Amino acid sequence: MRTSPLGAFFVSIVLAGCGGATSQSTTASTGTDTTGSADTTTSSGSTSADPRFPAPERPWAELDREERAHHMSRHVTPAMSELFEAYDAERFGSFGCANCHGADARERHYAMPSPSLPVLYPTGSIGQHRAVAQYPEGVRFMYTQVTPAMRQLLGAPEFDESTHGGFTCFACHTRAADDDPLSQPE
Ligand code: HEC
Ligand code: HEC
Question: Largest alpha-carbon pair distance within the chain?
Answer without folding.
Answer: 49
